[in-house]
Structures
1.
Amino acid sequence: QAKQLGRKRFAVFDEALAKGMVDVLAMESELRKALRQNEFEPHFQPIYRLGDSKVMGYEALIRWNHPQRGLLRPSDFVKIAEDSGLIEAIDWRLFELSCRLLAQHGPGEPFITFNVSALHLRHADFDVRILKMLERSGLAPSRLVTEVTEGALLDNPESVRNVLDRLRSVGVGAALDDFGTGYSSLSYLHSLPLRMLKIDRAFVQELDKSGSGNSSTVVAAILALAHALNIQVIAEGIETQAQLDALVSMGCEMGQGYLLGSPAPMSHWVAS
Ligand code: C2E
Ligand code: MG
Ligand code: MG
Ligand code: MG
């Protein structure tokens, strides 16, 4: 009886595994097709100066215009795109398109940020590729900021630092994304050539829950540390006026979030 049960459980597991593999393979071939047919597009979320609500820049966020399933978000496909290595080709297409759009439509010279995954940073010539891409798209290097996560640094912090150093020497900035959710946060802050740091929305969303919670202490400490190191701070995921007010009163210089503006195609932000 136990043996039978065991065998049955094994069979069920096997089937689920096989189904999962089929799904992944199907998704991979769909991703390849989407790349050929240009189904990926950047949406842009404005990054505001909190003092006066001026748009300082935009974060480019990938969307997949799927012919059957509609607009897909990164959580629906980026993991599989990364595992299959396709994310590199997809990202380069998206980066170039984003830079082109910004070069054409950028009154007041806003900057653009995009999310660079660990795979890109493994290439020692990442900075060279970025510069060629900027040249093709006509965007000034000083208007680009790459977003990296602490997780992407774990692999090989030394070589990532070299790549970011070379980018900085030609004017391209770097931002540490999702700050506070990763590993050895503090050690990276002084050793990396960072222009900006993005406070993860987990901290921001705690800000309006009860007056003097731990979260505002943490945010104040992050701001003090960043400013001492000459790093600008962007708060992520601002959803309420109370969160915004708290951030302004603590001296946070920039922010983004649904309260201020949700990600949308560039045509939504700039009339063409
Ligand atoms: P991220 O870089 O931390 O991006 C911020 C995410 O928070 C975005 O989700 C954005 O739409 C969402 N968001 C913005 N404001 C709010 C808010 O007020 N409340 C809440 N709850 N969420 C808000 P999205 O677009 O789904 O992107 C998720 C993640 O996917 C990004 O996190 C980034 O790590 C990755 N990603 C996005 N675009 C790309 C890309 O082009 N290439 C790569 N490799 N990864 C990307
Ligand atoms: Mg980001
Ligand atoms: Mg983030
Ligand atoms: Mg995130």
2.
Amino acid sequence: ALRPRALSGIQPTAGSFHLGNYLGAIRQYVALQETHDAFYMVVDLHAITVPQDPAELRANTRLAAAQLLAAGLDPERCTLFIQSHVPEHAQLGWVMNCLTGFGEASRMTQFKDKSAKQGADRATVGLFTYPVLQVADILLYQADAVPVGEDQRQHIELTRDLAERFNTRFGETFTIPAPHIVKEVAKIYDLQDPTIKMSKSASTPKGLVNLLDEPRVTAKKIKSAVTDTDTVIRFDPVEKPGISNLLTIYSTLTGATVAELEKEYEGKMYGALKTDLADVMVEFVTPFRTRTQEYLDDPETLDSVLAKGAEKARAVAAETLAAAYDRVGF
Ligand code: ADP
Ligand code: NA
């Protein structure tokens, strides 16, 4: 039987991905290659919904692709591409814009959050219709599953609504996707303030583990993570957010359960846990950095991987777009 199709996009953030991106998203992408016909893209069209520097965007997009490959995406087992290499995204995006109610788009909470950050008068129409482009991203590939975090649930609902609306008005065209919200997905917190999510924008430099940091810098950040004045190593996100965060990272990286770790560290000091986790992190990031650098040092190989990915993606996207255009009356 054919494998279910999965689609996910990741923003080309400035420089390195962080540990939260890896443990909360990229790791799932790698796993889904085995069970799904998976399409992954670096969403550079979405990246220009806020002001960008062209040279930086180009470099960050390539760097994001290099990191995804370094993390284990295998072009033989998935389709990895850059969104702007597949013009059908913008083309179907326009059709979807014309099917979306203004009020409906206005209810997207992420726009409210992001435009508030920008200053309301600075926010672009592109930022406003970002979720509608995301709808096109998903529907173009007739995706069955969309691996997303809880914060994206509303956008998946919009995708389902618009797919149903199009199908009803113009005839059966799009697969209705189901959110593939990975329940047990790890949420990683800032190492210095474990009550906030680790994030590129909100974390302090010492609280943020960049995957491309020098391994000794990463080890130091782990060892100076904020914990508590107690001494017991126990998973308790309310009373012990710092220790719990370290246990989550440790468990997700090694596959040991939190219960096993609690047992292993019974009667031991926080320092022992931090030292061991620092070693685990160094073991993970060292080859990750090397592999990323190898792709960056060999632009021909990276270009060729991305060109093949775009070609595979376009074969699917063009077919869907042709059907949609035909039904619309083009
Ligand atoms: P950031 O919040 O740093 O800007 P993004 O919003 O670009 O990161 O997120 C990219 C992906 O990484 C998303 O799938 C998001 O759910 C995941 N992610 C980001 N931060 C974390 C975190 N601290 N823990 C778990 N997953 C995260
Ligand atoms: Na996000």
3.
Amino acid sequence: MTVLVTGGAGYIGAHVVRLLQEAGRPVVVVDDLSTGDEGRLGGAPLVRMDLSAADAPARLGSVFDEHEVDAVIHFAAKKEVGVSVERPTWYYRQNVGGLTNLLDAVEAAGVRDVVFSSSAAVYGMPDISRVDEDAETLPINPYGETKLVGEWMLRDASRAGRLRVAALRYFNVAGAGWDDLGDPVALNLVTIVLDRLHRGLRPLVYGDDYPTVDGTGVRDYVHVLDLARAHLAVLDRLGEVDEPFEAFNVGTGHGASVLQVVREVERAAGVSIEPELVARRPGDPAELVADASKIQRVAGWRAEYGLEQIIDSAVRADRFRRSR
Ligand code: WQD
């Protein structure tokens, strides 16, 4: 009963690995360590491999055999939206090619249960602020497109065979469940703000004339530990789900504005911050908040943490990382 976690050395994957370890469940990690860190794995077995490489299906087959894998949680993927616009073909090779190889091996080994790391980016710029899973999927960049294509591949494979799949559409993930598992890369608002503070720079606010509570962009920030728990919750319920493929939003159902996030960082870090207003960033919806009632109904999951705890934990993990 081993769970294979691809990308288990990454920010979110490592949280899932640690939860599995705490639950006493056998786990094996596949990661190319391109952005991951073996130090996060707490001794979990690691097979270093690039899932998009030609020999990946065969190598995965050996991992499935050797570890008696019966479920897969697939995180290994690229996530920089900007790079996906500059290098779309490479992006498709990484995210869609990697998943294709994984699916080949999953089908050959007869593994049944797959949880897929998807994204709210599949919705693009919806004209509604609160989206449920039936909202139109119209991604606006190759990153979001690779996530949607991944969902389609898994949906079709699950209909054709015996796979059972849950795709989790993450909203804005932040925070740290353990101080040593913070996100070291400044790619999202919370980590960008912390990074700029350390460099003595003012955080940038991309536009303050949106039709939102204070004019700045509103997102649904979800604690990475809550998100990690969602993976285990859906994995445990896959057998009871009606459809072989289901997509689930993972968010809190509550929105926070850029300025509210900045104020929380100010409080948690004990510094005063004067953000700098700049132009809107193209492609940013004003407000994107999850209707997360489906995952609560089907898997009994709901977020336990709010913005304050997310930011507290992010600041703590950031301090911990810089003190090492
Ligand atoms: C949040 C809000 C910005 C930086 C993206 C991807 C998504 C997922 C998460 C995966 C927005 C504003 C940001 C800054 C700002 N990707 N902002 N100043 O755009 O909601 O989602 O990241 O890993 O697929 O699309 O997240 O954190 O970039 O922005 O004002 O310096 O913060 O305009 O309103 P986003 P984000």
